[in-house]
Amino acid sequence: MNQKKLRSDMEFGVSWAERHALLKGLGKTEEELRQPQIAIIDAWSNINSGHIHLRELAKKVEQGVIAAGGTPYHLSTVGLCDGIALAGAEYILPSRDLICNEVEVQIEAYKMDAMVLLATCDKIVPAYVMAAARLNIPAVIVTGGYMEAGHYQDREISFVDVGKAVGKVNSGEIDMDECMRIIDCACPSPGACPMMGTANTMCIVAESLGLTMPGNSTTSARSKHLHELAFQAGAAVVSLWERGITARDILTQEAVENAIMVCMAVGGSTNSLMHLPAIATEAELGAFDCIGYFDKASRKIPLLMKISPNGPDVMADFCRAGGLAALMKQLDGKIHRRAQTVSGKTVGELMDDASVLDNSIIRSLDNPIRENGALAVLRGNLAPDGAVVKQSAVPASMMSFRGPAKVYTSCQQAIDALREGKISAGDVAVIRMQGAKGGPGVITTFPFTSELAGSTLANKVALITDGRFSGATEGACIGYVSPEAALQGPLLIVQDGDIVYYDIERRIIGIELDEQVLHHRLESAVLDIRYRKGWLGIYQRTVGSLLKGGVMSGQSE
């Protein structure tokens, strides 16, 4: 192993001597410095329930690295929790690109030979996968597992029930004391919120891409097996280095297509349409139409699972039914079997070793929950570049809709209007200037959708926005409208009372305006963007189209 050239090694000279002296000051031996230098990177903090346990997992990774003949170093990055940081929501998506850059800065400055990256939550997992794709060194992802479901009045609940409870308080269905009892029970352990939100979707994506150890995405945060997987990841990254296998050997177009197909089958978060294109961009899969493949997959991959908010099941049910490899086995004939994984086995080999243990949880292609996949891409004169809907969470009565627009420029404006009775059944709430540039950072409208879901107007009002949702969003919610209003997309010129419509089955979305009127409004529209200071200002001025994942200019094109 020591015959292989190390990135971390350098020619004898002052820089070499200074590096050796400083590392030996840390207690490293000459033998350790001649081994592959492995970065163990996590986003631990004691304010993020999804990451509070990552230090324990990082120690297991360290043990695996040492056992396999590597020398580990612990490094850290930012790691926001979307739920706790909602008051600073505009920082959430920009933090993804900041984290990716943080990894680059540390790995390149220290010239690490390989890396293991530990994360659980919404933006951190894709940020780490993006970093692996950009840096193209041997890399393994360890995802931190899902939170146990809470229990309230003999039923399982999760984070999604908290937002609904607020809506029920405002509608008078429950009182504040009951709301607080739900809050007390909803999040009982570390890990990702146990529904098919963005965090679990991205953990599943990481495994579908082949970047985690098999079974990682469906293992509980409190499971001792997660510690075993972390140890295996540490050993695996040294093996990847020995065999010369880098991240882009695994992050191929076929791997990304596999991940998209899995998203459809499990009812994954709409936010995957931001993150998978960003991963493809960083992997320099420039000719690949990632968004187009989402729509293609939605037509050929049915929904095979009903994990909340798509149904009553939770992530623990997914684990009990056989896990991700079992789900992928149901897609045999569509999945790219020859795609490589960090385990040393191909996707096909992992599928062959798996079995579905409960076909009421993991359905077959012959017995799907829905014939179409979870996500659909709509296009029309309101969204020429596309808009996204989680069709698996839309009730049958709302699969097509037409109504007058009620226009707002912030989520709070829409919430206030809902509470004050200014939104009526049959309306289409339009929340604009929430996109990557305008928000900035593709602001979540989850607080509005949660209150709407808990109100008497649930399934009677549609939402269209250039912002995003939580993966836990349910109902007729269409987001990521592109071009966004801040890029002078048609959403900018919608007025109160304009008739807007969509038809999910036909994949269309539009506004009933004469083309000349639409063109005139766009030409005369006044765009008012307030550029922020600091990191947000840098992000606003450099962020690109969501078609490529909303990465910052200067990153991979």
Describe this structure in words.
This protein has helices at 14-25, 30-33, 54-67, 92-110, 124-135, 159-171, 176-186, 198-208, 224-243, 247-250, 253-266, 272-282, 290-300, 315-320, 323-330, 347-352, 411-419, 446-453, 515-524, 534-542; strands spanning 37-42, 71-76, 114-119, 139-143, 150-152, 155-157, 375-380, 383-390, 400-408, 428-431, 462-465, 477-482, 499-503, 508-511. It is α/β, with parallel strands linked by helices. It has three domains: 35-148 and 189-352, Response regulator (Rossmann fold, 3-Layer(aba) Sandwich), CATH 3.40.50.2300; 149-188, no CATH class; 376-530, Glucose Oxidase, domain 1 (3-Layer(bba) Sandwich), CATH 3.50.30.80. α5 (124-135) links the parallel β3 and β4. α3 (54-67) crosses α9 (224-243), α6 runs antiparallel to α7 and α11 packs antiparallel against α12. It is globular and about 75 Å long. The model has no long low-confidence stretch (mean pLDDT 93).
